[in-house]
Write a structure and sequence with these properties.
The protein has helices at residues 3-18, 25-30, 35-43, 67-73, 82-87, 145-154, 161-172, 179-189, 192-199; strands at 22-24, 47-51, 54-57, 78-79, 98-103, 118-123, 130-135, 138-143. It is an alpha/beta fold and 203 residues long.
């Protein structure tokens, strides 16, 4: 590694160690990393571009865990549908992308990212059923089980049928399910009749 690149490496390592998992071009520029130096770090695989103006230090301890990156890029985002189903063990399929819900009124400018693989969903009733969990030591928002099952039922025509059925059965067999909360959410989401038709025989 050339001496100037090595100096950049040490400098950027110290800077990321003292700051956040994800940093912006604006912050890097203010701290002595001009656009030319940023490009050099990108070419040397020391940092990577997540989306326009956002960078991640590749050699940090977080390089192999995507949760801190997700929470940095989408602090208001909530693990949704397939990602939530996977967390609750209501499916045996590993999602091929992180499914993240955002408020439908949120601006969609510069929302496309290169890494990690994310599928964004802009939804109504965004705040209903949000809770928090810790994954590998990082706190992230997720919809609770009842909201997740309501989302399944609401989106059943968009889901793989086998996965949908396993998700419903997973909830039915869950000893910690909260039927009263499920009914409340179903009413607020306008799917009370569907929930009764689908889950009624088991509940």
């Amino acid at each position: 590694m050339p001496k100037d690149t090595l100096n950049d490496f040490e400098q950027i390592k110290n800077f990321f160690d003292k700051n956040e998992i994800v940093l912006t071009t604006k912050i890097l520029n203010k701290n002595g990393f001009c656009n030319q130096k940023i490009k050099k770090l990108l070419d040397s695989k020391i940092i990577e571009k997540l989306k326009r103006g956002y960078y991640h230090y590749l050699l940090s301890d977080y390089s192999y865990c995507e949760i801190p990156i997700l929470t940095s890029l989408f602090p208001e985002g909530v693990l949704y549908l397939e990602s939530a189903l996977d967390y609750y063990d209501y499916t045996d399929r590993i999602p091929n992308a992180w499914h993240i819900a955002l408020d439908r009124n949120k601006s969609r400018k510069q929302i496309e990212i290169q890494y990690p693989i994310v599928k964004l969903h802009f939804i109504k009733n965004f705040s209903l059923g949000i809770t928090k969990i810790k994954v590998d030591g990082t706190e992230i928002k997720i919809y609770d089980k009842e909201r997740t099952i309501c989302d399944c039922i609401k989106n059943r025509n968009k889901m793989d049928y086998e996965q949908y059925c396993k998700s419903i059965k997973g909830y039915v067999n869950d000893k910690n399910k909260r039927i009263g909360v499920l009914a409340e959410y179903a009413f607020k989401l306008g799917i009370e009749k569907k929930v009764k038709e689908i889950l009624g025989p088991w509940l």
